[in-house]
Design brief:
Strand content: 35-45%
Strand order of the largest sheet: 7-8-9-3-10-11
Number of strands: 19
Bound molecules: adenosine-5'-diphosphate
Radius of gyration: 24 Å
Structural class: alpha+beta
Order of helices and strands: EEEHEEEEHHHEHEHEEHHEEEEEEEE
Distance between the termini: 36 Å
Low-confidence stretches: 112-122
């Protein structure tokens, strides 16, 4: 590494953790740059929470190493306890102390309120500590709420208190574990953007665990797709979506229609026609056709025939379920105004290039 390149805020290398015979984390590597947001995205049970708990120091890795701000905190014969790792943690259920005011909850993050968390304890005088609590509350827009009790706040506000507590010690990185799963859909949409803006303003790097793709794509600078204990691909949201590296990543991200094909260089022959490939391939392949690339048209001889089996209406878009050639079920997504009637015979066309993956 170039001596002038700053160390990543967090770097995890080849992490492994087994519980009673289950490989919860199975060789996961990821890193997040200073001030950037990394979303660890994957289905339930893929090891996201365990990976985050390893970084926080709530679990000990069986193998691999973790660095925070260029310093090894676990692995390679070293172990730094959680309270001295300089990472703030925001939990799913906020984990606020119900009997403490908002201010005292935030002070707890600084080792205040006779905290048992030693980090920062005794290092900040009372005045400086009070100032930091005020700054953290201001950062999350809750200056007015310092004397309230957690139960007097909405779910979104409580989550912002948890964030203020995590950010008060000015850590280089914050870890967020599905922080909005307890909020209703409308609130979640609003609060997640607020939290992203707060992290940006604080200049704090974040690792954000979620199973929600939309959330990951919207919030993160880079998305790490985690499947079966490993980060299979990591990159900017658009890149990960458009150029999945494996069929598993492609299938997990968005709705993917997967059809068989025979590739010959820049094209692949499928039941949906001869389609240009995103990168050259040869032989038997699996072809990923995104629903938004299937165009449905009035039935016309010479085009690929399909039958409209059903239609799912979502307001801002619709998904049309089609029975394509050979009875293959396909999903096509389009604007809500396109007139589609279940029971109709139509023609379909695939627009743009497709990703292909060699068959094993
Ligand atoms: P995710 O956050 O992606 O849902 P987890 O990291 O919670 O995944 O879990 C990954 C796997 O490890 C799951 O099979 C889960 O049951 C198992 N696991 C997690 N924590 C423990 C534990 N403390 N004891 C035993 N098994 C665990």
């Amino acid at each position: 590494m170039d001596a002038n390149t700053p160390a990543p805020a967090v770097r995890a290398s080849d992490l492994r953790k087994r519980f009673n015979g289950t490989n919860a984390v199975d060789g996961a590597s990821f890193e997040v740059e200073e001030g950037a947001i990394l979303a660890l995205l994957g289905p339930s049970g893929c090891g996201k929470t365990t990976a985050l708990r390893l970084v926080a120091g709530f679990e000990t890795p069986d193998a691999g190493s973790i660095e925070v701000g260029g310093k090894v905190v676990a692995g390679r014969g070293r172990w730094t306890p959680p309270e001295r790792r300089r990472v703030g943690m925001v939990f799913q259920d906020y984990a606020l102390f119900p009997h403490m005011t908002v201010r005292r909850n935030v002070a707890f993050g600084l080792g205040g309120a006779r905290s048992r968390l030693p980090w920062g304890a005794g290092r900040l005088g009372d005045t400086r500590q009070a100032r930091r609590v005020d700054e953290a509350l201001e950062l999350v827009g809750l200056s007015h709420a310092g004397d309230k009790m957690p139960h007097e706040l909405s779910g979104g506000e409580q989550q912002r208190v948890a964030l203020a507590r995590a950010l008060a010690p000015n850590p280089p990185a914050a870890l967020l574990d599905e922080p909005f799963s307890n909020l209703d859909a409308a609130l979640r949409v609003r609060v997640r953007s607020e939290v992203r803006d707060i992290l940006r303003e604080a200049g704090c790097a974040a690792i954000w665990v979620t199973h929600d793709q939309e959330e990951a794509f919207l919030l993160a600078d880079r998305v790490g797709v985690m499947l079966a204990g490993r980060v299979q691909q990591i990159g900017p949201p658009g890149e990960v979506y458009a150029t999945p590296r494996t069929l598993e990543v492609a299938a997990f991200l968005g709705d993917a229609n997967i059809v068989d094909g025979e590739a010959d260089g820049a094209f692949v022959t499928t039941a949906l026609g001869r389609l240009p490939t995103r990168s050259p391939a040869n032989g038997r392949v699996k072809v990923v056709v995104r629903p938004e690339t299937i165009r449905v048209e009035p039935k016309e001889a010479g085009l690929t025939p399909a039958y409209v089996a059903a239609r799912e209406f979502y307001g801002h878009h619709q998904v049309v379920l089609l029975d394509g050639p050979g009875g293959k079920r396909l999903r096509a997504r389009m604007g809500p105004a396109v007139p589609i009637i279940p029971g109709e015979d139509v023609s379909i066309a695939v627009i743009g290039t497709v990703s292909v993956f060699p068959c094993d």
